[in-house]
Amino acid sequence: MATTETGGAETAFDWFGFLARWGTLISLVLLIAFFSLARPEVFPTLRNTLNILNQVSILGIIALGLTVCLVVGLFDLSIGAMATFGGYFAARFLAELGMDSAWVVLGAVLAVLILAMLIGMINGALVSYLGISAIVETLAMSFVVTGVILGVSGARTVYSSDIPESFQIIGQGAILGIPNPILIMIATALVLWVFLEHTQPGRNMYAIGGNREAARLSGINFQKFALIAMAISAACAALGGLVAAANLASGRPQGVGETYLLNAFVAVFIGASTLRPGKFHVFGTAVGVLLIGVINNGLSVMGVATYWQYIVQGLILILALISASMNSVRRA
Amino acid sequence: MAIGRYLLGAAAGAALGAGATAALAQDEVQVGIVAVNYNSPTINTMATVAEATAKERGWQVEVFDGQGDQVATNNAANNYIDRGFDAIINIASPNPQMTGVIERANEAGIPFVSTFSGLAAGITADIGSNNTADGVIATTEMVGRLEGQGKVVKLNWNVLPALRERDHGFHATLEDYPDVEVIEIEVKVPGQVDDAYNQMTNILLSNPDVDAVWTGWDELVAPVVRAIEQAGLEDEIFVVSMDGNEEAIDLIRQGTAAELTVAYDVDRMGEVAVDVVEAALAGNPPSSRLLTLKPCLITQDTAPAKGEDVDFANCMLFSGEAVAQ
Prior knowledge:
The complex is a heterodimer of chains A (332) and B (325). Chain A has 332 residues and is mainly α. Chain A has helices at residues 15-38, 46-71, 79-97, 102-129, 134-153, 165-172, 180-198, 200-210, 212-217, 222-248, 257-271, 282-301, 306-324, 326-331, and strands at 174-175, 178-179. Chain A has a domain at 41-50 and 57-253. A two-stranded antiparallel sheet of chain A has the order 1-2. In chain A, a hairpin with a 2-residue loop joins strand 1 and strand 2 (178-179). The relative contact order of chain A is 0.20. Helix content of chain B is 45%, strand content 19%. Chain B has 11 helices and 12 strands. In chain B, strand 3 (87-91), helix 4 (99-108) and strand 4 form a beta-alpha-beta unit. Chain A binds chain B through residues 39, 42, 45, 47-48, 51, 55, 58, 146, 150, 153-157, 159-161, 172, 244, 247-250, 252-256, 258-259, 296-297, 300-303, 305-307, and chain B through 38-39, 41, 44, 48, 65, 67-68, 183, 185-188, 190-195, 197-199, 201-203, 205-206, 222-223, 226, 230, 246-247, 250, 306.
């Protein structure tokens, strides 16, 4: 319990509050410092910095969309399937069309994102109007989407030779030396940050996430914002999968989104222990994503075995969650 | 232990002999095909060909995709047996993890035939390749190109028996080449394609002097080639692999960093699986539980034209054969 003495007496430093707010960022800085000292010729270079950002960009795009859902208190477990959906169908559409044109690519990308948003809105409608648990409903939807992809694809991958160059540029090109996936991630983060932090709908979403009943009594329509949040989450997941397909020039019908599903939740929950403990927010998610990227890259650059990456990532998550719970420990 | 295996084999054979002829006497043979990971290109090809071949023979076929879930795959196979199917074909799901299914198939007196699934007591036969030998072939070709020295990155997933056997071939060959330095990477599965790309990108940053990459299977070739190209090292590094999937052969044909692959006749594996089922149902199971097919060495010179299949009947397996011709 922090107390204030009279007459300019000293105030006890609030270690709990400090760690709750800054613990994750301090972990990130310490990890960067450690890896920089361990491999000074490789880790702290501009090339590796871009490399880390490029490697986390797909996860980042997906996790940022998930953040919006979690802000309104809804878990979206369909993001893995939606990422696979985005990558596979964009590649498949373009392979079927067989035209290497930027306009055709733009059309295919938009079509896939709109389809993803519609699926997200169905999720939102089922959850908000029928009151179905979001976890169960989105899990069920992920089965449906996976089934559709496998049915349409016959479980066959669309290979690079069938995917037009102008699509591959989305994942492989660069502007002013910055890889396109990084730019897409930054653009997504900026748009969602402005939306959540600086618009009335965004503030309404925080109000719903804080106390749905109080928000309802204030005239905020949960159903409408559930639709929007789920649509954004699905579109971001599809966009992430699409960037992955363009990056590796292959439309895989399975094994894409599953990789990102759990890591996206890890990133967002790490983010919720950053600066604003217990609150999901775009900056926190970005820090969470970066933390995962730094751990994986740093250990990989040091030549550490893969299983250590799992162990360290898990330990960091536990530390982040302990850090986030500092406030409640203090209150107790 | 060994006696137990012989007894199990003998019991399985006897049960097959009794039940098989009855199955063939029926007009329609029912076959259940299970694959733990149907979407993997090689597995998909084997399963699709086996299904088509069985249907061509007028058999009734059902296919189950485990989507990576071995338990679900085993349950599906058990369901087929309980429903009175005449045979089970297992496509690349590790047989040592299906011993319960194999025992149930033996009890029901029906053949259990697999492809690329490894040896387990009680199976009718496993059709595949000699993966250890294939690992030796790919590694020997790699060492020859390296002139016996250099830095090699090996990416593999040692959980799958076939990949572990290829790994044994890799290490056995390199035992006599102390000047070949190896960086070993165990890729994360699922997510192997993305992980291979990320790990390779990171390794090339810290080890730009890498000379060659050995990947345990062809699915990793494309992301590795992409990482090499992104690092601008496509003229410095080459990639060797095994499987012979369409994408890898395409990259070899195009003259990318993908240098060669030991290609398997996966179409024929699917066909042979059906042949073995038919023979077993007729009371003639094969004498060996491991049936291997000849692979081909695919380089830019031997790669078939786009859209054409590898000619497994006439292809080469060793690079020296091309010189000798």
